[in-house]
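FAQ

Q: What does a record look like?
A: Structure on top, sequence underneath. For example:
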């Protein structure tokens, strides 16, 4: 069995995280979500993996290389072109169109292949899923999960009969139009013949185009209703909730890194904590090279990325701070994600560091630890 990871999208619903990161590179416990997928595939002996890339492709390719550190082989298919000014312009072909491009180039899909979206944590029993796919003689299989009815509009809805044969596929229908609350998890198993259904050289999507075509033709296309954990990072709110669940230990096989120095508190290397008046209520992780000043309050679940600095009197509650974040003195961050120049609250409201009311955090590599407005007043 081979694998393909879909990693060419822009991840617009997870901005601002994806202003500087492709969605598969968003970190969970300090490690890109795509790394967990590759490790999971390797555990099941799937060692030949193609990845289609486009937006910020160099960050994915630079991090994963050819996959030797994971015991696999990774190849990349870039979707885009170089314009007359020599600039690289991403131009995704759609999930199915990207597969066809790979096939036309080198014939990679010459055996059963599992295709996965690069932005979810899973613990799917791949061996069992492959067995069911083969037993039913499927040309294609889609792994589904049941979701609440009020969430169906965020997913591709799969309608199948009592034998699992897919009868229709609805791409993000409204609650009123949805015919099922079983949705695609973005995990598919394909036989090579599926590639012949995908037109070459144009955008073509698996959910919106390929699956409706297969149901229309009456091809052996099956849904698998399989128990497994599937954590989809569809929005900033989802990301915040995933980080909370992981730090609370609610996600199996994901362990907090660092050294546990007391109940609920993990720290990385060379971390400095001034305990004078400081209160830390876990679970919390404080990354390597971070500094926690006196009088700080940290309430978990909280993740503080490496090289960060929480200044005196500050409070960080149920938040995620990316690396090199400085929380300024006496500031309170409550249920926030801070990523470089942006912060996002639990509801998804975004602020830029230049906003007048956003003098709460800074770049920890900047030696100024006071609010810029205070410095400006002193200069005036």
């Amino acid at each position: 069995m081979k694998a393909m990871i879909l990693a060419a999208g822009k991840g617009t619903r997870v901005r601002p995280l994806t202003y500087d990161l492709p969605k598969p590179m968003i970190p969970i416990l300090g490690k890109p979500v795509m790394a967990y997928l590759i490790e999971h595939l390797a555990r099941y002996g799937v060692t030949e993996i193609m990845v289609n890339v486009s937006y910020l492709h160099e960050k994915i390719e630079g991090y994963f290389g050819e996959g030797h550190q994971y015991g696999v082989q990774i190849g990349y298919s870039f979707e885009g072109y170089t314009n007359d000014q020599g600039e690289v312009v991403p131009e995704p072909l759609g999930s199915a169109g990207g597969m066809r491009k790979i096939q036309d180039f080198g014939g990679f899909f010459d055996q059963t292949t599992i295709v996965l979206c690069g932005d979810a944590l899973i613990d799917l029993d791949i061996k069992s899923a492959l067995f069911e796919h083969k037993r039913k003689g499927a040309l294609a299989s889609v792994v589904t999960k049941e979701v609440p009815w009020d969430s169906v509009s965020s997913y591709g809805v799969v309608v199948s009969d009592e034998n699992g044969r897919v009868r229709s596929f609805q791409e993000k229908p409204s609650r009123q139009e949805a015919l099922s609350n079983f949705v695609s998890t973005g995990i598919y198993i394909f036989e090579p013949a599926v590639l012949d259904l995908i037109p070459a050289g144009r955008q073509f999507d698996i959910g919106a185009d390929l699956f409706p075509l297969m149901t229309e033709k009456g091809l052996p296309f099956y849904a698998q209703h399989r128990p497994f954990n599937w954590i989809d990072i569809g929005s900033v709110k989802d990301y915040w909730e995933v980080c909370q669940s992981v730090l609370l230990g609610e996600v199996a096989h994901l362990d907090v890194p660092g050294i546990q120095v007391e109940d609920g508190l993990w720290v990385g290397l060379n971390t400095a904590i001034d305990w004078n008046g400081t209160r830390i209520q876990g679970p919390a992780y404080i990354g390597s090279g971070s500094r926690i000043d006196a009088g700080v309050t940290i309430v978990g679940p909280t993740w503080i990325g490496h090289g960060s600095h929480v200044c005196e009197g500050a409070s960080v509650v149920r938040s995620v701070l990316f690396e090199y974040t400085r929380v300024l003195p006496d500031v309170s961050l409550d249920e926030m994600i801070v990523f470089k120049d942006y912060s996002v609250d639990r509801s998804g409201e975004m602020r830029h560091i230049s906003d007048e009311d956003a003098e709460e955090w800074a770049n920890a590599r900047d030696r100024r630890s006071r609010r810029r407005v205070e410095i400006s007043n002193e200069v005036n």
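Q: Is there anything notable about this one?
A: Confidence is low (pLDDT under 50) at residues 375-380.
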